[in-house]
Design a protein that fits this description.
Blueprint lengths: L7 H9 L9 H8 L6 H11 L6 E2 L1 H5 L14 H11 L7 E2 L6
Helix pairs in contact: 1-2
Family: Belongs to the parvalbumin family.
GO molecular function: calcium ion binding
Keywords: Calcium, Metal-binding, Muscle protein, Repeat
């Protein structure tokens, strides 16, 4: 499922740019899909889509499937990509990203 307000062509281009294993960079992806320029409210809406278990946190297993939130056929992130993404977003070191834990 695509996030509301994002251009489908931008999402497709961003997904195409990271089809190879270990090619995903979350900051570049956010910039390409336009999420980097969205309001905090829009980013929070995106957060809650990624937070599949509705715990208020994005855990490593949810982050691994990040790209599939944009397209069901997208690949899972590699362990290295997932850990790098998590390390950047986990501001308090608890192994999860809270809704206010990432500066998009």
């Amino acid at each position: 499922m695509s996030f509301a307000g994002l251009n489908d062509a931008d999402v497709a281009a961003a997904l195409a740019a990271c089809t190879a294993a270990d090619s995903f960079n979350h900051k570049a992806f956010f910039a390409k899909v336009g999420l980097a320029s969205k309001s905090n409210d829009d980013v929070k809406k995106a957060f809650y889509v990624i937070d599949q278990d509705k715990s208020g946190f994005i855990e490593e297993d949810e982050l691994k499937l990040f790209l599939q939130n944009f397209s069901a056929s997208a690949r899972a992130l590699t362990d290295a990509e997932t850990k790098a993404f998590l390390a950047d977003g986990d501001k308090d070191g608890d192994g999860m990203i809270g809704v206010d834990g990432e500066d998009y």
